[in-house]
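Feature request, filed as a ticket because there's no other form

It would be nice if the structure record came with a short human-readable summary line next to the tokens. Right now we just get the raw output. Example of a typical job, pasted below so the devs can see what we mean:
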Amino acid sequence: MKRLGLITFRKLFKSRVFWIMLSLYVLSLSGMLFGVESFMNKIAGDATINSPIPIPDFSLYQFPYIWHNLSYLAGFLKIFTALILIIFVAADYSYRTNRLQIMMGLSRGEYFVTQCIFVFALALFSVLILAVWVLIQGFLHSTDLSLMSITSKSYFLAAYTLEIIAFLSFALMIVTLLRRSGLSIVTFLVTYFVIEPIVRFYVPDVVAANLPFKRIGNIIDVPNSSLMQLFGLNFKTYIDYRDLIIVLLYTLLFLGITYWIIRRRNL
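Raw output as currently delivered:
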């Protein structure tokens, strides 16, 4: 496993494009997590001017709720990690580096493992950035810094980990099937933004609720902030084990199909 990890990271380490894209992702995610509270309070303040109901300022950065708030927000940028993965896995096929690795003694199963390492490493890197910002903002803005307050909702970080791994696993399946970065990106985006939403509109609710992207998005629901409660809206404030199980099964399915394609098709 260590050897396969070194193969994966050595290949990425030499890519300037990879580091540029990763840096853009870090800057985008950090900027959003750093400035979202002031941005939302400014919008709420502007809305109060013409609203008969006063809209109070609210904090997204208080422990323990910050775990839920920022995990939900970080999910909006997970598509950026999928694009990074698609571009660099497709490059393996375009430049035949995967075939070279097979010729140098790497089995197809080991090649599949290197792709999984990429998925997990990218997901864990995203989780690390999220965790750093949660702790920084939480300690700066919270009045209750007891261990219970700091850790009581930290399980949202684990839920986010599964969310992004499942998302990346689907992206890996698509690019392994199509092999071309442009075609894979278009297919991925169309499936995410167009095809599944249309399917959800026409199929029964029980089917729509269990489609892949719907379930992945349901792991972490909209935070039930004071602003939401002001308008009488209530969302799920916990992690449903059924969402976790179904998303985990989808992840295994996506990775299983990817492995089957690698084993059966000519690299």
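Something like this underneath would help us a lot:
The radius of gyration is 21 Å.
The chain has a mean pLDDT of 85.
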